Amino acid sequence: MPLSLYNTLGRKIETFTPINEGKVGFYGCGPTVYNYAHIGNLRAYVTHDILVRTLRRFGYKVTHVMNVTDVGHLSGDDDTGDDKMVKSAEERGKSVLEVAAYYTEAFFNDTGLLRIQRPDIICKATEHIADMIALIKRIEAAGYTYSAGGNLYFDIAKFPHYGELSGPKPDEQKMQSRTELDGNKRNQGDFVLWFTRSKFENQALTWDSPWGRGYPGWHIECSAMSMKYLGEQFDIHSGGIDHIQIHHTNEIAQSEAGTGKHPWVKYWVHNEFLVLDKDKMSKSAGSFITLQNLIDEGFNPLDYRYFLLGGHYRNQIKFSVDSLKGAQNARKSLLSSLRSIDEKGKGAVCGGSSRDAACAHTGASTYIEAFDAALQDDLNTPRALSALWGLVKDCGIPPKAVLEAAFEMDKVLGLDLEGNLYSTAHSGIEAAEIETLVAERAGAKAAKNFARADEIRDKLKARGVILEDGPGGTVWRYK
Ligand code: AMP
Ligand code: ZN
Known about the structure:
The chain is built from 16 helices and 16 strands. The chain is an alpha/beta fold and 479 residues long.
């Protein structure tokens, strides 16, 4: 069975066929580093991770690129509102680059705790301004731009494919009724490629350009950086569904206008939202739940990963502490089942009678096949988890084979089953407890409480756990 994915471009499930056989170029929109990621944002990155791990499981050589937005992102994706980075820096009394460095580290710390694999290429917007200017020049030379009020705009009326990704053209009515209209725009759907006359007197970072000193619009960064690392046409681009209407629609328009090539990206994969009751979670609104909040409530980051895998990425998930507790219990029971299977394996091979006499006696490969089929069916992680549970509950499979198959599945699920299984045996301390302490130490370091940070490191060392600090956060291992 081939891998199939729902392609927002065309709105249907399609068989995945990469542009170059055996290779996949994948760009996932990364964080804007003006604040911590909230657990909704982290859902997007867990989705990227499942996609990448699935592609690798099926033998593709994946190049995963992620941007870090540290300039140019306004609170409204349509050039309205405040500059997120500048506002955050002012509120915190720091420079924009200090804020960016702090939240970039916090972001990769969170993704590390969730066992999200690091992208192959992580690119900062501020380090790619020349690439953005070069692309804007091509878009300008192709006749898609106009200057007004000091800024350079993309003229959507000139681009015939505009809005193909989002369906009907952006709602003009809605655009016109916004309080903040941009009188320089010919059409309110037009967007800024380069700001030369900043709407913010205090714009911290500016660069020289053919259009004057200024800074790039947000959309251009993703086009310029993805093409720099993946070529002018590539396989998969993803992000949350909120990016379909404006950000990704504008990325397509400017990329295809600049290169003259269509389609720019073959498959568009969008995750649905994690919601709190009926409200969408918004980083800019200020009230949101972070991974650290969950850790403070006694959850292991992997409880949250398990919770997310229990829903299909294209379905909205409602977050509540009770449902997260359900995931926590399920993960605990999965680990204790695996532990008891492991113990049986140390004695005699399970003869198929003791664990559950009623269950079917099938080989582990049946469950692996069901697992793969679930992933091939548009990354159906709830069904993949059921295949894992089926395997664990099947008394007819020798314990060693159960464990091998479970660890094989875990290469995609990323629940660190093997590490968690053996952790207590090795050192008397569970991975959950270590992760909680590692997170507490990150908090202590951030608050400059280095005494506490060192104390945690020493305590863990005494219990056989080594911490290694790196640019992506702290990684731990057993001695
Ligand atoms: P941002 O840093 O705001 O650009 O968002 C980072 C990623 O998180 C983007 O892919 C968004 O589409 C996604 N995202 C934002 N809010 C949510 C949410 N509540 N649930 C799922 N994904 C989200
Ligand atoms: Zn983007």
